[in-house]
Amino acid sequence: MDLRPSAEHDLIRQTVREFAERRLRPLAKQIDETHHWPAELAGEMGDLGLMGMNFPTELGGAGADMVSYCIAIEELSRVCASTGVICSVNNSLSGWPLATYGNADQHERYLRPMLAGKKLGAYGLTEPNAGSDVVSMQTTATKSGKGWTLNGQKLFITNAGLAETYVVFAQTDKTAAHKGQTAFLLEKGMSGFGIGKPEDKLGIRGAPCCPLFFENVEVPAENVLGPVGDGFKVAMKTLDGGRLGIASQALGIAVGAYEASLAYAQERKQFGKPIGSNQAIQWKLADMATRIEASRLLIHKAAQLKDLKAPYSKEAAMAKVFASETAMWAATEAVQIHGGNGYTKDYPVERAFRDAKITEIYEGTSEIQRMVIANNLLKGV
Ligand code: CAA
Prior knowledge:
binds acetoacetyl-coenzyme A
């Protein structure tokens, strides 16, 4: 067992870090303050292969493995967590179900432009009364002449507005419990498909997050994604991979907060010496570095299992809960190390503190991750 990164993984880290430092570092504060993510970044990231990392080249992807994808999301999020999640939603939540369950026509029409960063994707699962409890969704799709008619609404949809293609889940048979949902592909601009006002969020303020409204949206039959009635399974399997993206985003936030703290501890002098010479600060840095390393190992292990096509739901949930709690804890300690300065927008740890929180909530709360882990343990997986 060799736990060292390969030469290819090192090269990917170096390439994405160079992009993040050159293009995102100068913009990250402004993206947070203005809630505006410059859309031209999508094309630039597409040209680098970042919008379709873990997809076959035949489908327009970069042909990289899942570990490479996790490294890329970590490196983007180390500098700008909004960019990290926009990229992760495109790859994991929209690209993956399309690549996996879509047919050749859907790949041509929707997947290729998504992986190229030309037409981004979004994932419409959450509803006002169906957050953790996915199967209680109330959006319906009923059979109509040429396909399906959608009615209902979604909430907290990342990339909404920015995206052109939406993977949307709806009830097609309310009596069939977990076999009553189906996934559909919707396009921005379809008649009756509305995108609401962006949420005013605590963190990841550059990543748009809006409600979606469906009022008699006519979706053609060829836009059904995967088998009718398989939507719950499609949603869950998609989230398994998505959780690795969010774990990597959390890891990147933690790394950014740690690096800023390490530098600050050596620069900032109190009582005539750098604060980093105090054991109280050293122990914080040591614990941050250790929990970051453990998060990365958990993420890369789960990513390898996914590449090997082995079961990895439990490992992805472990990686997500551990990395997101590490991010929140590390960002809190980073603010503490920075003292009063850390509480101001002049220092990046203030943004890391706000950005970290969502990683414990979206794509399954920490409580849901522990449920997934425990359910698998009890089943002997
Ligand atoms: N892969 C394949 N099948 C799965 C599965 C998985 N990961 N998880 C469950 N299933 C199957 C089960 O095996 C079961 O199949 P059978 O009926 O054949 O036995 C079926 O699905 C039902 O499973 P459960 O009884 O476990 O379902 P549940 O209703 O109790 O829900 C849950 C389980 C884990 C709580 C699930 O609802 C869940 O993950 N909830 C969290 C939702 C979530 O993460 N939302 C995030 C929204 S997207 C987002 O946040 C995006 C963003 O902003 C960036």
